[in-house]
Amino acid sequence: MAIRVEHEIHQRRRGRNLGVFVLLIGLIAIVFGLTVVKVTNVENIAQMERFDHVVRPQLEPAPEGGAQ
Amino acid sequence: MTDASLPETKQQEAQMGDYFALLKPRVMSLVVFTALVGLLVAPVAVHPFIGFVAVLCIAVGAGASGALNMWWDADIDVLMKRTAKRPIPSGRVQPGEALAIGLALSGFAVILLALAANFLAAGLLAFTIFFYAVVYSMWLKRATPNNIVIGGAAGAFPPMIGWAVATGGVSVESVLMFALIFMWTPPHFWALALFVKSDYGDAGVPMLTETHGRRVTRNHVLGYTIALVPVALGIAFTSIGGPVYLATALVLNVWFLKGAYDIWRRVEADAEADNYALEKRVFKISLYYLFLHFGALLAEAALKPWGLGGW
User: Fold this and answer.
1) What average pLDDT does this structure show over A25-50?
2) Model confidence over B228-251: pLDDT tens digits?
3) Closest to B13 (Cβ–Cβ): which among A12, A19, A37?
């Protein structure tokens, strides 16, 4: 039996596979778009930088009672 | 086992459209419209992309609850003419697939809405899905002829979720938008039940027309329509109402009330004589009724930037 690169099931399920492809691309676009919108709408970007997993004392608010 | 024992008709391959049909696209269109209005009339502006994602999540959540409903009701859908061609009873989609799609899309829609908007909106969406799939489909639908009254709450939540997306809260305006759809559902559905030759009885679903008869159903249509009027007019005097909405609501309520009164006055013999022409007309009016009320709210919001909307 000859090996067929294009199996019959590929033809039969083309519509479904294309549908899943479009949905996944759509999901990526949504998550990317949401990220861009959320990040560009942050009022003070320092709030984001404080989640950088690295201690950055210059981003900490100054203690009450005056500067160090 | 030989080939002869195999069923003659090969099971059809499900196409993308069959999976889409599980989501009840026609119901989804109403959900999208009312959720969008709830979002746009809210006093807080939402970034257009976040608004788009939020409405998409609400639509997908509603679709997911539709898939769960079809999974649960597959046994009765196969018995009724109206639903026998749905993807599961027709054999195109397996019940397990519908369950998986319903659960996965529910989780996806709720989590994404929480991330895109806020937890209140996501919580309301989760409750809506639970209410439609569990409270309505699994419990009320086969238990009481009031199934459509209480179950109608599931269809009434979308504008409230849209409002919550924008404001992060619940207010008298969003509760009244909820109440408008909630009170509208019974007369709308029972007007339909009067003229559709249903086979709910064969499927063991207690619809009012079957359990209490058509006379009682006609009484209920009028009763619920009267109760709907103050809700519809009340919205006019909130922050989202205004003269355009009030004028629209007045005309629509007189129109719908007149239809409901005519339905109540009719005897079954007259209805059968003209093939339920009046009931069909009132059902159509009920569709315009809801669409135009929400359209008028949208018009009020659209006029506000020019200083025209609202009081």
Assistant:
1) 86
2) 999 999 999 999 999 999 999 999
3) A12
| Contact by Cβ (8 Å): B224, B186 | yes
Let me know if residue A13 belongs to a domain: no
pLDDT band at A7 (very low <50, low <70, confident <90, very high): confident
**Which residues, including other chains, have CB under 8 Å from residue B161's CB and lie 6 or more apart?**
B35, B38, B58, B121, B124, B125, B128
**How confident is the prediction for chain B on average, in pLDDT?**
92
Whether residue A12 lies within 8 A of chain B, CB to CB, comes out as yes
- Rounded mean pLDDT, B94-115: 96
Distance CA B185, CA B195 (A): 16
Rounded Cα gap, residues B97 and B135, in angstroms:
22
Domain assignment present for A40 = yes
Counted domains in chain A = 1
Q: Is A15 on the interface with B (CB under 8 A)?
A: yes
A26 close to B (CB below 8 A): no
Rounded to two decimals, the pTM is 0.88
Whether residue A36 lies inside any domain: the answer is yes
**pLDDT at residue B61, rounded to an integer:** 97
For residue A31, the surrounding DSSP H or E stretch is helix A14-40
CB contact under 8 A, B53 and A18: no
Nearest to A34 among B15, B19, B116 (CB): B116
- pLDDT bracket for residue B154 (50, 70, 90): very high
> For an interface test with A, which of B10, B12, B16 has the most A Cβ atoms less than 10 Å from its Cβ?
B16
Contact between residue B69 and residue B38 where contact means Cβ atoms under 8 Å apart: no
Chain A residue with the nearest C-alpha to that of B51? A34
Residues of the domain holding A35: 25-55
The amino acid that residue B73 corresponds to is D
Per-residue model confidence (pLDDT) at position B210: 86
Helix segments in chain B, DSSP class H:
16-21, 25-40, 48-72, 74-77, 95-116, 119-130, 147-167, 172-195, 200-203, 208-211, 213-234, 243-265, 268-273, 277-303
A32 within domain boundaries: yes
Chain A CB within 8 Å of residue B114 CB: no
- Which of B16, B49, B56 shows the shortest C-beta gap to A15? B16
Distance, CA of B38 to CA of B32 (rounded, Å): 10
